[in-house]
Predict the 3D structure of the following.
Amino acid sequence: MTDREATTPATPSILNDRVHNRGVAFSVRERAELGLTGRLPPAVLTLDEQAERAYNKLRAMPGGVARKLYLEHLHDRNETLYFTVLSGHPAELLPIVADPLAGDGMGQSAPDYHSPDGIYLSIGRPDDIEKSFATLGLGADDVDIIVCSDGEEIPGVGDGGVGGIQVAAGKLAIYAAAAGIRPSRVIPVSLDAGTDNQALRGDPFYLGSRRARRRGQGYDAFIRRYVQTVSRLFPGALLHFEAIDPEHARRILHAYSRGYRVFSDVQGTGAAVLAAIYAGIRVTGIPMKYQTAVAFGAGATGVAIADQLRDAMVADGATEEQARSQIWLVGTPAPVGLTETVHQAAPTILLGTSAVEGAFTREVIEAMCRVTGRPLILPVCGPASTAEAAPSDVIAWSDGRALVAAGAAGHDGAAFTIRQAGSFLVGPGLGLGVTVSGASRVTPTCCGPPLPPSPNGPTRRSRALRCCPWYGICGHRRRCSPRPSYAPRWPTASPSSIPRTRPRPSRTPCGCRPTPTFARIFLGEDGSERSGRAIRGERQARPGTGRRPTAGDRILGLVLLL
């Protein structure tokens, strides 16, 4: 030991900047200019080459936990490369990002708490809400999506307390990878209302509040303060509630959906279920109005999905009374009672919202096959560890007749692709639709069934809606612009790189000429980044343009379904 102050080796700041770091994509000249000589391996790889190398390394890892940890490390080191890998393999990697358990091996432990870009709010300090967001230094037009979670209903974990912020961060990564929402324009938020998880409260290293979870009027007042404050600070942002108690989610939607841009994962799950059912109808040929559904799990999630199924049946021509009579809610636990219900109701759809592992037994599946030729089996809530049945078991017990989620026809050695029907598939389309359209709120029809047919035949508006999802947004009553096709991956590793739209056709599918307003959503004519709200303001200032979309427009629903 000496009296001289110890020094540590200097690390170039750009290597610690995940936004600007390009890794081995820096050329020899750039390395010399940035002081990186000798600090990187000698090879120079392009972004695509780095993405291929990272993906191959990811595929070689044994399980979901290792892959999730690798992706998190990649995100902290090189954000551009991270989203390029996700965007290149969404079907394989987005479920890993969305699942806090990463598929296996983490038991019932809560996710980690680290989220340097996040906001941590406590129910005991409501006055800190505005101060906390002020520390980000963001303006009113700088945020598009805010995902918050109180961690009470983390899939596969349960009450994870303050660890719910990792679920929020994972959802925002999907918004960026699948919808092209810029990562710098999103905020993950933890709403710490306490925890009822005794293991966490007894853990000396737990970083959240150790008191029992607050409910009732205190919780409602905290949520009200949060919604009002955030909506005032960022009036153009979508407020997404994730991994909260389904009953709380229903109350929040009922209280704030008419005046604020709020969305819940309960709505997303219902939309994913509807999409799976519509896909199954293409195989079975049974119209929606004649479907009969049994939902195992009569909690708030099951009731919310049942409401959306009822609306879909009514939209297809069924009466309200008929639609209600064709939906059966079964409480838990009752596999034996579930078999009896299947025999009595003769359903075409068996929906699992209970997260009771193994509830769909062989007897239940065989009973479904006896009452309908091609049953739709949809265990949609929770990760694989809490699913009512494994898809492979359902296929085997039904002799290949069952459609699991989106399903696939054929058996006798044919390969089956089981699609994941999760709410994380809905958020990107909804967030992009709200951001671009400037919708003042998210109505139930945004995640609901298609428009019912007009008794007087198709109108000009309904024809345009079927062929042009942007009708009513482009601002021209006789013109409509096509739905932009976003390339969510960053074109280069440059810090200024942002998502761009692909070349637009000269005419839309309905024959209208596209307007130039949405030619570049995030990129101005001078190359500067602009938000959807700024572009809408310019459009509204032009003569003859800027029709403001109404709450009844079906724009967002079409974005989701298309």
